[in-house]
What we know:
The chain is α/β, with parallel strands linked by helices. It contains 11 helices and 13 strands. It has helices spanning 43-50, 73-78, 96-103, 119-124, 139-153, 155-159, 170-182, 200-215, 227-233, 251-254, 258-265, and strands spanning 3-14, 17-28, 32-36, 58-63, 66-67, 81-84, 110-113, 130-131, 134-137, 188-192, 219-223, 236-241, 244-250. The strands form 3 sheets. It has a 6-stranded mixed beta sheet with strand order 6-10-11-3-12-13, with helices on both faces. Strand 1 and strand 2 (17-28) form a beta hairpin. Helix 3 runs parallel beside helix 7. Residues 14, 17, 19, 37, 39-45 line the site of adenosine-5'-triphosphate.
Amino acid sequence: MSELLNVHDLSVAYGAIQALKQVNLVVKEGSITAILGANGGGKTTLLKTISGLVPSQQGRILLNGRDITKLAAEKITASGIVHVPEGRQIFGDLTVYENLMIGAFTVKDQFVLESQLEPTIKDALKEVKKEGESIWLKKKDVIANNLAKVFRYFPVLEERRTQVAVSLSGGEQQMLAIARGLMATPKLLILDEPSLGLAPLIVKSIFEILKQLNDSGLTVLIVEQNALQTLKIADYAYVIQVGNIIKQGAASALIKDPELIEAYLGK
Ligand SMILES: Nc1ncnc2c1ncn2[C@@H]1O[C@H](COP(=O)(O)OP(=O)(O)OP(=O)(O)O)[C@@H](O)[C@H]1O
Ligand SMILES: [Mg+2]
């Protein structure tokens, strides 16, 4: 698997507080990569820096080999890194559909892999310009394809498309936050604690959907407190503590790591 994201020697400070210290991290294309660690470790800061929401002090962030360290957040989103923030931050007084359309804000005409086309959209396309395995889609068709995909993964959102977001349950709001991210056609979906405050059964179903999205080709970088459940779906994981990566490895190995079990995975 090739490297989709490469974070090299990244340091971040908030005034006198050193939040990240020379962090190195790689996200391979097609993987689920996890960042674990206790409160205040710098997990959110790392995600925000990757997304251009917090400036770095030193270091580089490369997306597909291209330096994106100094790009503005909107440019980073447009280049394919889509951030689903901690606490969801959906627009409560807008409908589910309106929230989804806000997610599609950066979408442009683009090539889309034929394998990524929803059947209904594929049938509706008249003339198609092909290049290898990809098909050139107009912006409106990209959005329609993303919406069809989102409704396939989250049918409850289609049922509630005209409801205001504040009326959704916590789990449904998290689904909406992920779905809104998917509307932007991410190359890399970044999730900050999607399980926060949700009942175990809902967490299980959200993690299953994330795994399915990953199986269909989506690369995921996820921050979680729920280490066990995350390691079950992840390929590779990093453990961060007060701004330093203190451990990393294949998720299948970390899940059996005695130190990690003691610190994060419980008795
Ligand atoms: N805007 C800010 N201004 C000043 N300090 C901040 C700011 N945001 C975060 N910090 C500090 O930076 C450090 C890392 O915070 P961060 O939110 O990245 O940790 P985290 O691992 O996401 O924690 P949690 O698990 O609680 O979400 C903490 O010491 C925090 O207090
Ligand atoms: Mg955080």
